[in-house]
Amino acid sequence: MKLRYFLDWGGDILWAGDNETNEKYGYPADMDLLSISQKTKGLIDELFALWLSIAQGSNSEAEKEDFKKLNEMVFENLTHELLPLEILNEMPNNSSQPTAYGGG
Prior knowledge:
Blueprint lengths: L1 E4 L8 E3 L2 H7 L12 H18 L5 H21 L4 E4 L15
Helix pairs in contact: 2-3
């Protein structure tokens, strides 16, 4: 089973990556059905807030760096917390303007 990892304007971050995952968790994935810690859920909220700020035109280099670091932390946490699910990282990490994107 696979999950795709990227943000969209609604705040969703995990998306089914195959039919089996879609049937079990939905598209986007229902976060309440996944074993995600409260700490990681809080980090996801912080990541989304930064993403929105940058996507809406913030030119703060500090925010962009914070986004990059937090993005890496959230992805790593989810990868560990959701084993044995495979998580495909489709989050633009080097973009100065994050976009809702799920390539593939």
